[in-house]
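Reviewer comment 2.1 asked that we show a complete input and output for one of the modelled complexes. We chose the 6-O-phosphono-alpha-D-fructofuranose case, as it is the one discussed in the main text.
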Amino acid sequence: MKKLITIERHFVEEQKRNPHATGELTDLLYDVAFAAKLVRREVVRAGLVDIIGMAGTTNVQGEEVKKLDLFANDKIINAIGQHGRFAIMGSEENEGTIVPPKNESGKYVLLFDPLDGSSNIDVNVSVGTIFSIYRLTGSNPQKADINDCLQKGMHQVAAGYVIYGSSVVMVYSSGHGVHGFTYDPTIGEFLLSHENITTPKNGKYYSINEGSLNQFHDHTTAYINYLKEEDKATGRPYSTRYIGSLVADFHRNLLTGGIFVYPATKTHPDGKLRLMYEANPLAFICEQAGGKATDGNRRILDIDPLQLHQRTPLYIGSEDDVLKAESFIKNT
Ligand code: P6P
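Response of the prediction step:
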């Protein structure tokens, strides 16, 4: 029988492998896993309790906020903030930064999208939480500010996501490979189910919203047409898989191989997805699994951020597929 390893046990084992580890990162990851359990509890009951539907407010993105978004946001801020390990936070749902209720010795920064893909909640399509962790740039937690949040993705000390789907899976990396844990509700634990995830060099799926065809630049259309051509040697035509929930599309492609593209378009010159709490954490995971993530030109993790909610085009997944997509941008 396979050993049952809880995510908390895995955090401790990871810490032991790193001689310089102080245990702080382990505690942070504990906090994130705990918050994920609280969010999961409501997400999987969403159809049963009155937290479905529009909360009547709009978030900083100008999007109508569903109650579950607000719930997840509050849970993460309070469940994690109460331990004082994070000096400052940034969330998709909050315009400015968040200083947790108890910030005494926090040396870390947490950026997160509490419930990505939330427009799918009412129709029972997978949604996800995405998180990104940095060290403070300075030494004084009391002086933490927006500049601690605006660090290049390459400086993340850990990142990951939770996908609330047919099963609930938490995937994380602290720079030593990518590991997935499936939630077992009978014992209330995330158990190791996907150790050392590696993504294939090329895939068979492409994920893009072809409904935006009229907004695509020529190079995007040319790339899609290339993927649809018949050529057995290059595994074409690819199959299209687009759920409209970033975490779900990313997770499938990570495991099976493939590419997710949210490009710059005529109406969204910077793309739609957010750099700091969507592209960067997923790019960290993707590279740790052997994949590639760029904005079509630059490595996502090299982008120097200017704003907390800035957008970026995103080409992410199997390395050869991302390189092929980039070649169309260069040559079309
Ligand atoms: P579109 C969900 O709203 C989201 O932020 C991502 O989860 C998803 O990949 C994307 O937007 C879908 O956007 O424009 O294709 O509906």
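The mean pLDDT is 92. We note this here for comparison with the apo prediction described in Section 3.2.
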